[in-house]
Amino acid sequence: MLLIVLPNLQEEVVALYSCSRKKYREYHRFFSPLLKQLKRRQIIAPPPINHRNTYLEWNYEAELYSFGKRLGEEFDNELLRQALMQRSYLKKLEEEQKRVGIEVSSNENVDNVCMIPKGEEILQNFTLLYLRHILPRFPEEGIQSIKDHLMSEETLSHVCFHIGASELILCEDFPVEKSTLNSTMKALIFALHESSGLERTSVFIRDFILTQIAELDINDLWNIENPIETLNTICRNEDVDLPEPRIVGDSGVNTILALYRVGLYINKKLIGLGSGESIKIAHEMAASDALRRLFGTAEHQLNIPFNLVLNPKIKSEPNLGVKDWCEKRVQERIKQTLSLNE
Amino acid sequence: MAINLRIIYEERRSRAIIEKVNQCMTDNVGRLFAVIHILGKQYRVVAQDIILIERNWPPNVNDKLIFEKVLLVGGSSFTLIGKPVLPKNIVEVFGTIVHKDLTHTKIRYFNIPKERVHNLNFVREELTYIRINDIKVYPKLNVLENVEYLRK
Amino acid sequence: MSNKCLLIPSGFPRLPLKNGIGRVVCQLKRITIKFCKSSGSSQGVRNFIELDLLDFTNNNPEVVIYLKPRRHHSPVVISEYLNGERHYMNFHNFTRDNTNKWLNFLRTRVGIKTIRFRKLQHTELPSIQGVWSPFTNKSPELNITSFPNEKFLQPKHLPESATERLRKMFERQKLKESEEMKMNNKSIEVQQ
């Protein structure tokens, strides 16, 4: 058997029947054991990773320019540099300057410390506005939990890394920590706001940060502790009979793999269906299913549009809380928001 | 007489069903799925999912497309099945082309040992990544647009 | 898809950072072109740099291009992507058109190593109308009945028996006759 490696296939090695005429290039028999040994040594002692700016091919200005173009946004150059400069790096610079003997001029607007809280505010306002617009029926507690997820360190640092900002950040720590990425993201949002205005910033937030909900199940983000009681409070708010639970199906009743299906009925109409290992669990699942259908976030109902253009200057009022939730009030709120948007 | 009555009854029934389906499509439709036909293959598609299309396909990165060959659309309360394709004024499936790539190296090996015939080819086909943005349904069942009637 | 190539890892299609839902972001960050100023293997790359490079940069301002002329090297292109992948490609003896095509390919790529795709699709919602379970389409009467039950002992789908067909034909005939009688009575009344 010959080991044949063709020129452009660097990742794949293909074994073939040997040909009588040796048309293809051969590799020496020590080659594959050599590669295996190298890989083994790499795993034991991985090679040191250096920051990209230690390479010879690095032009910070060009990188900043293309960073803006990649996102389709125009950043003011100074603001962008300010947003990417962390306080830790500035301190390091100042210390070195002191050591060498250069006078240290204290500039306030060189690092991104002031930009972070302002960027956070812009982010928060717009995410709440957008979420409340898309999910008018979703209670306020749920919206807050979605917002918390979107503005968490993990999500923002993930977004920041995949935009390509992690190599442009000037900071002391390497590899760049999540907290640094998190704060830089907020600073970048503020820098964009100052350069291009609130409307463009809101479109940016919608396209990069709000889309992180896209492939998630929103209901997983908000854990309703007692679904049966919340359903009951909603029914009392609407002056409707409390839901009656009925067993709709069961199988394997006295076994380990028991399955119960419970349906909740209001005036003999099915509002929620749940299944579980015991009747209690199935009842709770049915209640949470009923709540999801009411709030419009069941799997077959939820269709979040990511292309809406909203006026970011509107201050959005919080949605109804779970305790006050009622169909009439929800409809009123929807009408109010429509009139506000007009 | 009975046959005429039956026809009238069936017409009324079909009209009622069409009205009901039209209504389903105007009220909160919710999530929809569609079956699209692209380049000879059919894909079941929901908003925000990814499709890969193999072989040469002209559209470039960043192009926004409307897929018109829709064989089936469905939601939680209704399904529309085309014969074989649904009319364009009812459904629209929007997509964006995100990337163009090449597949992994595929091996085409043809061998007839007795006749000592063998051919070996390595192929990398073009691959297109599409992101489906949206599926929209319009309540225009039984509404014929842009129809020209033939006159005798 | 068959797994003929056991040495190529397999996976499912994924896009980084939900690309395409909001904006389409070009995944290529920077390209480093290492080439020789005199040797023949970099002739194509040199021609590309002289004639087509500026067009490429003007059309794609989001990519940073570094040129490294190095003697006695065959031309090499290293592309870096937003998710951290570095892709190394040898452009030995490529023509100018070839470099154009391959650079375009590098630009439109995702930064994922070539894998064999097990499925050419990815959804988060495989079912909207509900996944089938043994309980779907079962009549809820089953919950109340205690077995053995005569009704559920019968076979579900029986073809129409001959007696049934005859009975239906007879009833249809009856309907026809009664309608004809009515028509006749009306015509008589009209005449009168």
Walkthrough of the structure:
The complex is a heterotrimer of chains A (342), B (152) and C (192). Chain A is mainly alpha-helical. Chain A has helices at 31-44, 60-71, 77-84, 87-100, 115-134, 140-150, 153-163, 178-196, 198-208, 218-221, 227-237, 279-295, 327-341; strands at residues 2-4, 14-16, 244-251, 259-266, 269-276. Chain A folds into three domains: 2-44, no CATH class; 60-214, Ribonuclease III domain (Ribonuclease iii, N-terminal Endonuclease Domain, Chain A, Orthogonal Bundle); 220-295, Double Stranded RNA Binding Domain, CATH 3.30.160. Chain A is 49% helix and 9% strand. In chain A, the strands form two sheets. Chain A has a three-stranded antiparallel sheet. Chain B is of the alpha+beta class. Chain B has one domain (2-137). Chain B has one helix and ten strands; from the N terminus they run αββββββββββ. The mean pLDDT of chain B is 91. In chain C, helix 1 crosses helix 3. Chain C is an alpha/beta fold and 192 residues long. In chain C, strand 4 and strand 5 (86-90) form a beta hairpin. In chain C, the strands form two sheets. Chain C has a four-stranded mixed sheet with strand order 3-2-4-5, with helices on one face. Chain C is elongated. Chains in contact: A-B, A-C, B-C. At the B-C interface, strand 2, strand 3, strand 7 and strand 10 of B face strand 6, strand 7 and helix 6 of C. Strand 3 (50-54) of chain B pairs antiparallel with strand 7 of chain C.
Give the terminus-to-terminus CA distance of chain C. Answer: 82 Å
Low-pLDDT windows of residues of chain C: none
Could you give the distance between the termini of chain B? 31 Å
Q: Strand percentage of chain C, roughly? A: 15-25%
Shape of chain B: elongated
Query: What profile does the largest beta sheet of chain C have?
Result: 4 strands, mixed
Number of distinct beta strands of chain B: 10
Oligomer: heterotrimer
Strand content of chain B: 35-45%
Separate helix tally of chain B: 1
Can you give the helix content of chain C as a percent range?
25-40%
Q: What is the string of SSEs of chain C from the N terminus onward?
A: EEHHEEEHEEHHH
Domain count of chain B: 1
